[in-house]
Design goal:
Layout: E1 8-13, H1 17-28, E2 34-39, H2 42-49, E3 63-67, H3 75-84, E4 93-97, H4 101-108, E5 115-118, H5 123-140
Parallel strand pairs: 1-2, 1-3, 3-4, 4-5
């Protein structure tokens, strides 16, 4: 982990407890300092992003990892709200989904995202993707939200 690196606030919107735990473990042992916040459904994600209710003190995340298939408000609806808000639309969003078909749905509805990742079937593949995601966002990409 980089000792002098900026703390990166991440919002993981995921209803699968296994995926949440795996992501948390991977980022805890990762290369960068991060605060992983978890929303377990679309309603909770929107409450977090708009600092409503128990999330009134939530920090605006630097990065959003968004599952599309969520209980309550669907991930596609959450993405629509994010991309229509002047502040939130500047946050990079990585879509996580288990279906190749979701890409077409997003494009058909004009819902842009930063990128799109199809969830793998095995835990080993998911870990590999999380490591590559970390390397990409920390070692390669430079965005105003992350600094340089």
């Amino acid at each position: 982990m980089r000792e002098n690196s900026k703390l990166i606030d991440i919002l993981l919107v995921e209803d699968n407890p296994g995926d949440v735990e795996l992501t948390r473990e991977e980022f805890e042992g990762g290369k960068f300092r991060n605060a992983l916040n978890v929303a377990r459904d679309g309603d909770e994600a929107l409450d977090f992003l708009f600092k409503r209710g128990s999330f009134s003190d939530a920090k605006t995340p630097d990065l959003i990892l968004l599952d599309l298939n969520l209980p309550k408000t669907d991930g596609r609806e959450v993405l629509e709200v994010i991309k229509s808000d002047e502040v939130l639309k500047k946050i990079p969003v990585i879509i996580l989904t288990s279906s190749q078909m979701d890409r077409d749905v997003l494009e058909d509805h004009g819902l842009p995202s930063t990128c799109y990742i199809v969830k793998p079937i095995s835990m080993g593949q998911l870990l590999n993707i999380l490591k590559k995601l970390e390397e990409f966002w920390i070692d390669i990409v430079r965005t105003p939200a992350f600094g340089s």
